[in-house]
Amino acid sequence: MPTVDAAALAREFLAELGRQDWDRLDRLCRPDYVHHAPRVARASLAEYRQVATAMFSAFPDMTVRVEQLVPAGEWVTARYVATGTQTGPFHGIPPTGRTVSLSVLALLRLSGDLFAEGWFEFDSGELVERLTQAAAGAGPARS
User: Fold this and answer.
1) Helices H, strands E: what count in the chain?
2) Contact at 8 Å (CB) between 77 and 104?
3) Is residue 133 a part of any domain in this protein?
């Protein structure tokens, strides 16, 4: 059972993710942290960092806004919105200039005072579809 405020630690985790403070994220997670997400079946923290860095390269102004945190024992459920403007290539889609928001549901598991595992769910297909439409000529639009 965690000996820390799990919701506060999850808020910090998401804030550091939004700031891309990988050194701090490393200190919030166990060395054997496992990350699960669409298109990333199972990844170490280092592997997840590569995926997230590519995302932030495509959306350099991305922000993370926490909407809700629900702690339950060693788990914290987090609902947040990531918003950014695509100014770089993403999954083969050229920059569109389109600002998009993505709702994310995350389950974070603590082991002791550190995160051991994270499950992140979002509709990556919808994101790719919106960007593909924008690249095909729909132009920059907020969604």
Assistant:
1) 4, 6
2) no
3) no
- pLDDT averaged per 10 residues, the chain (length 143): 83 93 94 88 87 91 96 96 94 91 96 95 84 71 47
pTM: 0.86
Written as one letter, the residue type at 90 is F
Residue 55: inside a domain: yes
Could you give the angle at the alpha carbon of 53 between the alpha carbons of 26 and 72, nearest 5°? Answer: 50
Residue 52 structural domain: 6-80+102-123
DSSP 137: I
Pairwise CA distance, residues 46 & 22, whole Å: 9
The number of folded domains in the chain is 1
What CATH number is associated with residue 34? Answer: 3.10.450.50
Give the model's pLDDT for residue 4: 81
Is 45 part of a structural domain of the chain? yes
